[in-house]
Amino acid sequence: MIDESDDMVRLLRSPVISRDDQLKAISALMDKAKMNALTKRFIGVVATNRRLFALASIIKAYLSILSQRRGEVTAVVTSATELSEKQVKDLGASLKKITGSDVAVETAVDPDLLGGLVVKVGSRMFDSSLRTKLQHLSLAMKGVA
Fold this sequence. Notes:
- The protein is of the alpha+beta class.
- It contains 6 helices and 4 strands, in the order ααααβαβββα.
């Protein structure tokens, strides 16, 4: 997506950098990335309207709408360690059986989980992390649960 380096953030957000300078810089980046003409025109309009700071949000919203139109749902899977491509593929296939629609799997890593997974599909969340299981066990041992 968009590089979050200091220079890029300064280019996108600084009111000191003129509209023309922003447009020149973003045009040079698009040429270097060999983007197609439609994408260049769209980002040019965004730059002309001084809305480059919102580009990441625009892209995220577009991808969300595109997924909905394709009948896809997005699952955010958080694990204690990085998942392999095979694990992500297998998880996507399992989630497709459960949800009945294509599933785009986004992964995140949270070492605090200790093990297991936390899967969020829409408003539903499945937490099979070791951290949560240990918390439940601790509460049960205290007699709170």
